[in-house]
Amino acid sequence: MVNFRIVSKIIGQLLFLESAFMLFSLAVAFYYNEDDIMAFLISMIATVGSGLIFRYFGRNSTNNMSRRDAYFVVTSTWIIFSVFGMLPYIVGGYITNLADAYFETMSGFTTTGATILDSVEYLPHGILFWRSLTQWIGGLGIVFFTIAILPSMVGGNVKVFAAEATGPIRSKMHPRLSTNAKWIWSIYLALTVGCILSYMAAGMGVFDSFTYSMSTTATGGFSSHDDSTEFFRSPAIEYISIIFQFLSGINFTLLYMIVFKGRVRALFTNSEFRLFVTVVFSATAWIMYLLVTRLDYDLENAFRSALFQVVSFITTTGLFNDDAGAWPHITWVILGACMFLGSCAGSTSGGFKCIRGVMVLKVLRNEFRRILHPNAVLPVKVNGESVPQSKLTTLLAFFSVYVLMCLVAATIMIMAGIDNTNAITISLSCMGNVGPTLGTEIGPVMSWSILPDTIKWICSLLMLMGRLEIMSVLVLFTRSYWKDN
């Protein structure tokens, strides 16, 4: 059975960490001297107090964690982090509905970027900073962050990492997982700092530079203005956003190899990266052509708008510089495909992941070859290495469950009165942690406030499942998980 003592101990320690994150937002609230100071003080006290209670129930526990414990820890951590993360909204009265507050917080931590707020510009700076910070924390994973910064806080590191990591193939840069995590977080931090400085150099204010950079590098999508990146009316800012969204969509292990090992050639020989780039440029060229021929965009504006939206959708960021909901409907299909595919595994983005797309394409190619050569031995190779059959079985299971969950969620939403286009794209958006949708009722520049509370709770669950890649959550609902054997 699950060792609830060690689970309670780890959750208690992680709640202390969450209260420390709130301290940064409290500092922002003090600096601007707005009415969110008490909201953060009360939230921090409640979080620390709850952390002490969890630590008390987890006293005298060992650090011996089973794989079963690890999956329970990861799923429960994301749920509980979101519960306490919504306190500043509730306590401050900025969001009064429980379903709305939880939705907003889960959307932040899972880097989905969907919002129920019709306008964010009335919010105080501390709350706006907290919204962006939740995305930055969740970008590479709550528990993964802890392994990098405070490895002693989480026992059974490898098992926990396996439960939270994304992608079917996980490469390592260093034998020690904590060192591996530190390098990845160093790259993440460097990208964030680079993005902040670039935004400031392009004329963005200091506060906006911090909030938008956290949202950009986490591929989240929350912004401090209702018009997102379009607010600045600056092509330079939009191009900077495109660059850092794109970089954040690349496997961080690959970025490490390029930056610290000087293996630039690895970028061009990597199958996943090649598919990622191919999809981005193909989709951009197609949409650019449609914008020029059907909506009379000039070439530069068409290129910038098309590239921004494609990169935003495929990296599951959700920032926007144009209203894609007003574009020809064929562009919705292209952006929907980008939304489903996502970018690279081992990045901050969501979606199906390009590495799985590569594997699916290679399996299909082998099946066509097998028709002509029934007795041929045709291994599936990715980057020169054979993929074990067990990985291919897992791929099939993941694809089946991913599509099934999207269909079930879309059906429930249609039954709740949501139009077909929105229902499908909402389910895809939540499962892929994308944020924007394509439709008339809830378009890419609109909030999700009109959704019924029941649907918001379902969307929150879909976001969690999408961020933890479905199986880590669904395994908790299987009979075999709760058996003693």
UniProtKB/TrEMBL annotation:
Transmembrane stretches in the record are 12-32, 38-58, 70-91, 136-162, 183-207, 239-260, 272-292, 330-352, 395-418, 455-477
- Its primary localisation, in coarse terms, equals membrane
Task: Recite the UniProt keywords alphabetically.
Answer: Cell inner membrane, Cell membrane, Ion transport, Membrane, Potassium, Potassium transport, Transmembrane, Transmembrane helix, Transport
Which compartment or compartments is the protein found in?
Answer: Cell inner membrane
Pfam families given for it?
TrkH
Q: Which InterPro entries does this chain map to?
A: Cat_transpt, TrkH
Provide the membrane topology annotation. Multi-pass membrane protein
Family designation: Belongs to the TrkH potassium transport family.
- Name by which UniProt lists this protein: TrkH family potassium uptake protein
